Amino acid sequence: MWTSASAQSPGRCVRVGAALLGALALAAAACTGSGSSGGSNGEDGEGTRASVETPDIRVRDVRGLGKILVNAHGRPLYVNNVDTAGRIRCAGACSVTWRPFEISAESVPSKLPGINGTFSVVERPDGTRQLALTGRPLYAYVEDKEPGRAAGNWVTVSFSGSSFTWRVVTATGALPPHPTESPSPTTNSEQASS
């Protein structure tokens, strides 16, 4: 199979072998899907392949907040009290300050290790896809300039007539502590010296 038909054309064997290897690689890639772990089988119900992507989400222990979800850059992920999977209201100016966790795939694994809740992909008003956790679209806050900083936690702002309250997403799915619920270390030490 790998021998040349003619001693005068040794390059032909290499070209045929390379073409065969390329075809085998394409066939193997088609059989294994997109390389995502868990969740979906990659079928969209009509026998065609649906794109599947495992989002790059991590759990990070942040002082005062506990274990929260962060993106690939270590920035906290947020949900708000207005958006749902079927109705995204944070668009336009809102989505400039609160960046949607966009994803190119049509689906994602529903579960990721160490995170309570079910992941899904929702369509935004502009047609892009956004990652959601338990029906709540995920966002990053532009003011979180460094990893682990959660400047947007419990922030309330209005956009287009809707009042949004933002909170970080914990790995357990519980609400993060409200800033007024847990005194800061400075407050504790000031009380001790009184």
From TrEMBL:
Signal peptide start and end residues: 1-29
Low complexity: compositionally biased ranges: 183-194
Domain of life: Bacteria
Keywords, sorted A to Z: Signal
Region (Disordered) location: 34-53, 173-194
GO biological process, one term: alkane catabolic process
Protein name: Secreted repeat protein with Y-X4-D motif
The species this protein was found in: Thermasporomyces composti
